[in-house]
């Protein structure tokens, strides 16, 4: 079972829920893989504290132009939709940071003057955190495009009974890439106007992707009841409501797993796991 | 023209609440730009009246015309984005055709270019909308990225350009940009070329980790930055550590903002913390604003000399 933990709005508690779920499920005897797909700002390692046994660069495909072979036909510049390769007479300029690696330019070049090259965009790190198999991506500073690195994180996932993908915030390409291929999406929200607005966007996104999903209302007593009413009205399953507890905030602040310290919290996560099992069972 | 961009690395540290308060303090002398285009929230506090709306089209989408597909499989072979599925409807010649998943498609057009049958249409996609509005705190440019759409970086650039033009036309001195979390494409698009970046963080290990990465990003693009620890009193030691760490990255500390439940209350009431009666943090945000105005003048003077 592959569960994606997403949110729309940032800072609602995705990583707290994802890391505690992974910890509690592994303690319960399941094989668990945790994937940190928030490669721009991965925080899962702060809480699960993995030991990495593999750390390798991840590269994205980019063109390399052989100026001696180029005839200046300009087809490469015509096929490229991203302005990543520009042909002016026989001078061909490439802008690797704009390149999506689609391969159009080297496929279209009639004289074989363009070869597929690669450039590093980040790192892939795999290891273990206790019984949890841990994979994370770390995007290099200044790189704009995270989807290829997210694909690499997902491809490196060791098989497990439960895979938890901690997703980036938002609703655009990185989130889409992270939730693709998952069996179920758990949306973590908070009952504030910003939380609700972004939850609506996230719900529309997962519906567009035809993925089954449910909601966790985090800090459920910290805002108003509009989020709950929205979920009732739109028949969105609320799998758990987590109160705004000082012990949770303090554990988070110092990078500790709340489920390790608090029996009450651990019981709540166990109930959430059971609910997920029911909801996401194929 | 001065551009102040508010970013955070980590999500949920209070960027939008801080920007809304700055908007109120700017009192109509700035244009507001909501550049968190895939989860835009500033409008929930500023209640914009839209005076102009524009479709945002960037990039294209490919679509296979099932009647023309011969199921040769060339498109599937060439697509690097796993966007092509062999589950399209049959036609007179083949029992199944290929189909393009519009969400996975990155709009590169390789499939359409190389399809021997010319069976693939490749046309512009509407990725979202952007708006120019009036608010009680001055003009605002904002956007809504379509559901599951791409090109958020280009939409950010569109919003920023429109905000700058609007500020020039109306003789306003500043653009205040609400950025998105992370360090990727939309953040780079909101940050590059700005006069000053304010990094809003929180006193947690995650906040500290993400602040460092976004501070490095600002340095990478040569943008002067300051850090503001929001809700600092939840963990004063972590706040100290963040500020000294930021200092080592060449990022000075702006005044801190205390934890204040009035911020959530203001949000629920659809207003900003500085307009809300008796919000203790309002004084802190005013101090941040005053410090930033001085810093942005210094940065502009340094850039000019």
3D structure, described in words:
The complex is a heterodimer of chains A (282) and B (305). Chain A is an alpha/beta fold. Chain A has two domains: 216 residues, Rossmann fold; 46 residues, Alpha-Beta Plaits, CATH 3.30.70. In chain A, strand 4 and strand 5 form a beta hairpin. Chain A is elongated and about 70 Å long. The mean pLDDT of chain A is 95. Chain B folds into two domains: 233 residues, 3-Layer(aba) Sandwich (Rossmann fold); 53 residues, 2-Layer Sandwich (Alpha-Beta Plaits), CATH 3.30.70.20. Helices cover 37% and strands 25% of the residues of chain B. At the A-B interface, helix 4, helix 6, helix 7 and helix 9 of A face helix 4, helix 6, helix 7 and helix 9 of B.
Q: What does the average pLDDT of chain A come to?
A: 95
Q: Write out the strand line-up for the largest beta sheet of chain A, numbering strands in chain order.
A: 3-6-7-2-8-1-9-10-11
Number of domains of chain B: 2
Query: How far is the N terminus from the C terminus of chain A?
Result: 8 Å
> Which H/E pattern describes the elements of chain B?
EHEHEHEEHEEHEHEHEHHH
Looking at the structure, the CATH topology of the largest domain in chain A is: Rossmann fold
Mean pLDDT of chain B, to the nearest integer, reads: 95
Structural class of chain A: alpha/beta
Proportion of residues in helical segments of chain B: 25-40%
Number of strands of chain B: 10
Oligomer: heterodimer
Helix content of chain A: 25-40%
CATH class of the largest domain in chain B: Alpha Beta
Helix and strand content put the structural class of chain B at alpha/beta
- Indicate the overall shape of chain A: elongated
How many strands in all of chain A? Answer: 11
Number of helices of chain A: 11
């Amino acid at each position: 079972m592959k569960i994606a933990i997403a949110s729309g709005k940032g800072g609602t508690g995705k990583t707290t829920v994802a890391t505690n779920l992974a910890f509690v499920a592994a303690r319960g005897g399941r094989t668990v893989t945790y994937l940190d797909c928030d490669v721009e700002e991965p925080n899962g390692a702060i809480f699960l504290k993995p030991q990495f046994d593999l750390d390798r660069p991840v590269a994205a495909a980019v063109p390399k132009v052989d100026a001696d072979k180029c005839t200046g036909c300009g087809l490469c510049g015509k096929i490229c939709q991203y302005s990543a390769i520009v042909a002016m007479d026989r001078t061909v300029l490439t802008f690797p940071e704009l390149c999506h690696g689609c391969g159009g330019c080297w496929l279209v070049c009639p004289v074989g003057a363009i070869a597929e090259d690669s450039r590093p965009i980040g790192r892939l790190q795999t290891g273990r955190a206790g019984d949890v198999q841990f994979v994370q991506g770390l995007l290099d500073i200044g790189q704009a495009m995270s989807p290829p690195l997210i694909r690499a994180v997902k491809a490196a996932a060791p098989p497990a009974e439960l895979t938890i993908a901690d997703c980036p915030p938002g609703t655009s390409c990185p989130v889409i890439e992270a939730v693709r291929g998952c069996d179920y999406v758990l949306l973590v929200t908070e009952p504030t106007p910003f939380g609700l607005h972004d939850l609506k966007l996230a719900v529309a996104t997962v519906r567009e992707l035809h993925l089954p999903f449910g909601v966790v209302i985090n800090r459920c007593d910290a805002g108003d009841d509009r989020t709950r009413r929205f979920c009732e009205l739109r028949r969105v399953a609320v799998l758990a409501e987590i109160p705004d507890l000082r012990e949770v905030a303090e554990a988070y602040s110092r990078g500790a797993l709340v489920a390790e310290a608090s029996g009450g919290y651990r019981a709540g996560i166990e109930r959430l796991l059971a609910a997920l099992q029911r909801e996401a069972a194929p | 023209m001065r551009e102040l961009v508010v970013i955070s690395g980590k999500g949920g540290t209070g960027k939008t609440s801080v920007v809304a308060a700055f908007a109120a303090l700017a009192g109509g002398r700035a244009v507001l730009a909501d550049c968190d285009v895939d989860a835009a929230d500033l409008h929930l506090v500023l209640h914009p009246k839209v005076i102009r709306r524009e479709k945002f089209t960037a990039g294209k989408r490919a679509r296979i015309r099932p009647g023309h597909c011969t199921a040769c499989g060339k498109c599937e072979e060439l697509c690097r984005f796993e966007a092509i599925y062999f589950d399209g409807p049959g036609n007179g010649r083949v029992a199944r055709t290929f189909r393009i998943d519009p969400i996975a498609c990155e709009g590169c057009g390789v499939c359409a270019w190389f399809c021997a049958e010319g069976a693939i249409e490749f046309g512009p996609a509407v990725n979202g909308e952007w708006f120019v509005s009036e608010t009680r705190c001055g003009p605002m440019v904002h956007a809504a990225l379509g559901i599951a759409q791409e090109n958020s970086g280009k939409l950010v650039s569109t919003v920023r350009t429109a905000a700058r033009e609007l500020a020039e036309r109306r003789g306003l001195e500043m653009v205040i940009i609400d950025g998105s979390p992370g360090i990727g494409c939309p953040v780079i698009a909101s940050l590059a070329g700005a006069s000053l970046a304010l990094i809003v963080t929180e006193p947690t290990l995650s906040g500290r980790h993400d602040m460092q990465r976004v501070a490095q990003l600002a340095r990478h693009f040569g943008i002067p930055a300051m850090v503001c620890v929001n809700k600092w009193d939840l963990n004063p030691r972590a706040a100290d550590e963040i500020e000294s760490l930021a200092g080592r990255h060449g990022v000075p500390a702006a005044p801190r903002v205390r934890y204040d439940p009035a911020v959530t209350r203001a949000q629920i009431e659809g207003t900003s913390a500085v307009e809300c009666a008796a919000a203790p943090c309002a004084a802190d945000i005013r101090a941040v604003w005053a410090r930033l105005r001085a810093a942005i003048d210094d940065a502009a003077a340094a850039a000019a000399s």
